[in-house]
Amino acid sequence: MDILVNITINGLATGMLIFLLAAGLTLIFGLMDVLNFAHGALFLWGAYVGIWTYGETNNFVIGMIAAIISGALLGYLLERFIIKPVYGNHIQQILITLGAMLVMGELVKVVWGPNIIEAKVPPFLNGSWEFGDIIIIKYRIFIILVGFIVFGGLLFLLNKTKLGLIVRAGVMNKEMVQALGIDIRKIFLFVFILGAAMAGLAGILLGPYSGVIHAEIGLEYGILAFIVVIIGGMGSVLGSAMAAVLVGILGAYAAYFVPDLAVAVNMLIMLIILIFKPSGLLGSEEVAKQ
User: 164, 51, 160, 55: which is closest to 108 by C-alpha?
Assistant: First the structure.
């Protein structure tokens, strides 16, 4: 039982990390109909800026703020100068954001070098709690709590605020919202920056969780985020949360009990889900047909 509890907590922490990245991605696609393959690069820059700031200030909270700001700022620049000219064209979006991801990944190497950088757990989150044979690592619980707080905040924003009402209306009918005198482009920009900021936050949280960061984590986790978004249903925040937890926990169990399947388990989950429900867990059939 102690092993199962530990594996489940590890998988849930991984799932919350993936959710923070995937939620922004699904928001951006759900409202803006943008396939942003550079989202992983925002995650990468959040990791490097956050960990570097944490190392310079010896304050993890300041590092988190720096990571969020870096993600938001880069997201703004990406939307304004890279993605804005290709709205409505998925092929051009894929090509130009893939190019942006490669360039941003190389820029990380220019600024911080190609070597792996160590990321230490902050002192106030170091250590673990022991309940008999069950060992609960404090930092993983912290990630889970942050993930649930962000998830609750997103649901509140989308379902209980005027801005959320506009966002949901924009998903259903952009032209009607525009006709009511609301500048939907500003809403698009806000959503994009929000998603980018969450990617930056996920980046710095990954550092102490894995112990190191490197220039390939953007591509690695970016692909994983797309898998989660597809499983959960394009445009569904709740679906992304469910899919992220599913991928995280099943991945943790596979890594422990069947290590040879650990790499392929995410693809297998996606294949099984899409066979029975092509739109994903909570996705709409209209989006699936696009």
Answer: 51
